[in-house]
Amino acid sequence: MKFELATFNRNVLDQELLVDLKNVDSILKDQGRVLTYRSYNELGKYSSSTIAARFGSWNDGLQRACLIPGEEKNVSIEDLFDNLKLVWIAKGRQPVYRDMSKAPSKYTASIYNDRFEGWRNALENFVATVDQEHDELVCYEVEIKKSNGTKRTKREPSLALRFLVLKRDRFRCVACGRSPALVSGLVLEIDHITAWANGGETIEENLQSLCFDCNRGKGTT
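RE: above sequence
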């Protein structure tokens, strides 16, 4: 097995990123496709998140490259809602329309607006889906408990479970009370109260929201 370091893109010049955007846009046009967050990840030398981080948002990067932002079609509802979870987690609060044009969002709010006939309708459908996920997770937790240790959960919580735990904890660290909504750059993590290595399961009642600093100070989870 050969070990190789991944390419480090932090020091790539802005011009190199913009040239690559234009090159990928040209290739996609020949294929009858549109340059989007996802299609750039398929063909670009860098990543769409690098573009978004460097220029402030994915769309701002396209505009700097003199390209017209395109909207990805036929995105599944599951992907749209998973994307919304990621933005909600990163912000520590309900995202607003403009939040969807910036990293870590892969899709702009206009996609949600078109798919659900309104941004508010998209949020309401999202909340209904999260509530359904919670009911499904409760049933799963009951099944785990009834197995008396014969069935184990995976160590890493799913995105749905992670979101529900953070939502329950009001997107705040339960140890220090800080929130990404109020502290720029704060990262919340999901911690096992009883360590998974010690038999603790990855279920809601055994998980808590901790910021990076508090979680590292706690020890092995």
